[in-house]
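Lab channel / #folding
Pinned by the channel admin:
"Please post every new chain as: sequence first, then the structure tokens as a reply. Keep commentary short and put observations after the output so the thread stays searchable."

First post following the new format, from NK:
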Amino acid sequence: MEESKLKTLEEFQALFGNYSYVVTAKVGDPVYGKAKARLIWAAQTAQATFNLGLKSLLIASVDRLPYKVESPQSVEAVRRNLQELYNIQADFDIMLLYPPVGEVKERPAGHYELSYEIPRYVFPRTALVHTRDPKLVQRCVAAKIPFLYEDHDEDHNLSPEIDIRLFDSPLCKGIVAITPNVAERLKMTLTTVGSSKLLVCDSGVNSAAFLSQTDKSVRWRRFLLKEENRKKLVVYSGGMQKERGIEDILQVAVRHPEIMFAFAGGTDRDINFWYDYTRIKRINNVKFLGYLPQSEACSLQQSADVLLSTRANDYRSTITSPLKFFEYLASETPIVSTKINALQNLDTEGLAVSWYEAGDLIELEKKILTTFQKFPLDGKRFSQNSSFAKKFTWEERQKIILKQILDMK
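Reply from TO:
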């Protein structure tokens, strides 16, 4: 590592000492869960911070876990689940919070943790809290704990009950907006907060996504293309809500039975909805694989001829983070993508990417077909994609955020 970077890392370590960089998304969240982007963010942020040499602590509730957590062995089971679901080492510290059973039923999620467990057991060992929960920000200010706040345009970020005066506090070391549009909203809302506190950071891509998984990707192709002797595989992975442009993909699929379309991700409810849709429309060249652990999703992405990053043409596209796009790039597979707002200012010239306008079904179909020709795999990969994506790992994201802390100390 360069001397300048070593000096910066030493500054981080001196600043934190033996105390922890505490990460939690929304208080009351379980420590892990399928198809929960907020929980992925928390685990990846804790891991990236640890990888940069800091003492990192993930706090989360045991509520809604599929087993009781009452011993060191069960805590290790939590760690193994984090490793499997999110493709990380999970070697950071984990503190599990235990709200009483009656409290969970009688009070809003996170109430007991905020009122009792976090002040008593977390704050005494905390150097800084990194959270997406404005209620925890309030507790930090009351306890004189430095904090970083992230806004991903979720409902709890938009609550009119948020006391904007909290962000004027010198304890606020930064406000992270997930997209430029979210940053503009924050500028209008937090009018007294200096621009030096506000920064825009896309979600990161897991460094493990860059690992080649040739054997697994070959098995995916055999499994998905064995029917009807199909030759081309198109993959979408991510959320399965209507706003993701799923119906557009299915309308292309029904016109091209010679191509297999595979979908990974989504909740059971969303998957059942689209399964019924394809049955009614008699679309037979589609596979719904459900939620996959991150490592499996990456090997699936490496098996495709084309990856799809679609969106409906609606407001949500203006505040969407390009997390999945960066993960796609890491796979070195050609991509057909909408150019959401968060990607507008990136120089993507030379990448194996074809762009189309969200909601334009005819253009989506055309770009899928032309991408087969323009970027044929033929046993090779497109390394320019992964080289570009390496600038957007979770570790690189955390370096930007940690620099914010140093600048504000």
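NK: The chain has two domains: 3-204+393-408, 207-391.
TO: also worth noting, The first strand starts at residue 20 and ends at 24.
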